[in-house]
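Long-time lurker. I teach an intro course on protein structure, and each term I like to show students one example going from raw sequence to a predicted 3D structure in C-alpha cell notation. This year I'd like something fresh instead of my usual example. Would anyone be willing to generate the C-alpha cells for the chain below so I can use it in lecture? Attribution to the forum is fine with me.
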Amino acid sequence: MEIAQVLDNALRKAAAVWVRPDGHAPRLVWALWRDGAVLVAVGGAEQTVPGLADGVACAVTVRSPSTRSHLVEVAATARLVVPDDDTAAALRAARLNARPAWTAVYRLELA
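-- Reply from a regular --
Happy to contribute to a lecture. Here you go:
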C-alpha cells in the first residue's frame, strides 16, 4: 500500500494529529482531513499552534486509529485559507463538544 493511501485511510479516522512547525515543539491538535489536506483551526477560543503561519514548513505526525501507535510522519506546508461555507460547516461539525471560535484556518498541504 503506498503512503498516500495509508495517510488517507488514517486521516479519515483521525480526530487529532501532531503538528510541528519548523523551530517549534510538536502540538497535538484537532484537525479535519478534507480534499487531500489537513485543516487546522486556531486562535480565538480555539487551540494555539506556536509558529504556525502561512508558508511555514511543518511535520504532521499521524497515529494509527486502531493501535494509537506512531503511524507516519510527513512534511507539509501551512497555507492560510478562508474556508468556504461547506468547509466551515465541516469544521464546525468536527467540533462536537465545543462551539467553534477560530480566527484562522490553515490547510496543511502534505508533501
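Some talking points for your students: The helical segments are 3-13, 85-94. The two ends are 17 Å apart (CA to CA).
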